[in-house]
């Protein structure tokens, strides 16, 4: 039996030593929220915590800027770094390939299918943090870091134009966030994603009312 409590302290210490300044939306608090999400989903779906928990803690141990051309490679780099750390730390070696796969497959930009329940849990847990109040806050923080305007003054909501989240912060909801619920892998994750997406819809309705459009 693996004592995950003591291991989690080591995972947290490893994350504290990792460079995570490249993207304000992928900070250490994001990691902790993903761990909490993953634990709840794993308990509900019957996944192996010995795989889910380390993968959730270490999924963003390598962070690249959102606008970096290497961004789709970040999850592969994180999987490699996490595997090395776990092996050197003495984590049970028979779990490490499954942990690495869960880390590799969590990324939206990498577009790698999660092949195990544990990988599906970690992907869902990460995507839940992009939705709801926290997801909206992260979206706005990242837009600020990138120096993007909140919306297109000529057409704040991209109903008659193609959304472009390289130019406008709000467009990220349309290019990615509002569609995440449909990509969820587990019933528990999908139900929570739909609840959090409803909050984003309410925000957009309120914003439209305030802008008078």
Automatic annotation (TrEMBL):
Keywords: Hydrolase. Residues 27-131 form the HD domain. Pfam families: HD. Transmembrane segments: none annotated. SMART domains: HDc. InterPro entries: HD/PDEase_dom, HD_domain. GO terms for molecular function: hydrolase activity. The keyword RNA-binding does not apply. The keyword Hydrolase applies. PANTHER family: HD_PDEASE DOMAIN-CONTAINING PROTEIN, SUPERFAMILY HYDROLASE, PUTATIVE (AFU_ORTHOLOGUE AFUA_1G03035)-RELATED. This is Hydrolase. It comes from Candidatus Viridilinea mediisalina.
């Amino acid at each position: 039996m693996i004592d995950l409590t003591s291991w989690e302290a080591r995972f947290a210490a490893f994350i504290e030593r990792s460079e995570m300044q490249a993207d304000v939306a992928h900070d250490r608090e994001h990691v902790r929220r993903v761990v909490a999400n993953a634990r709840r989903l794993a308990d509900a779906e019957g996944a192996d915590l010995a795989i889910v928990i380390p993968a959730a803690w270490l999924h963003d141990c390598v962070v690249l800027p959102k606008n970096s051309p290497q961004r789709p490679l970040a999850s592969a780099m994180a999987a490699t770094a996490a595997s090395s750390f776990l092996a050197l730390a003495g984590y049970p070696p028979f779990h490490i390939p499954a942990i690495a796969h869960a880390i590799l497959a969590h990324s939206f930009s990498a577009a790698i299918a999660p092949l195990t329940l544990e990988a599906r849990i970690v992907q869902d847990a990460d995507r839940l943090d992009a939705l709801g109040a926290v997801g909206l806050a992260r979206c706005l923080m990242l837009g600020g870091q990138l120096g993007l305007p909140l919306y297109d003054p000529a057409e704040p909501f991209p109903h008659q134009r193609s959304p472009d989240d390289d130019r406008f912060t709000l467009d990220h909801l349309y290019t990615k966030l509002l569609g995440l619920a449909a990509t969820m892998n587990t019933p528990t994750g999908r139900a929570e994603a739909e609840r959090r997406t409803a909050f984003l819809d309410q925000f957009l309705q309120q914003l439209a009312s305030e802008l008078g459009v």
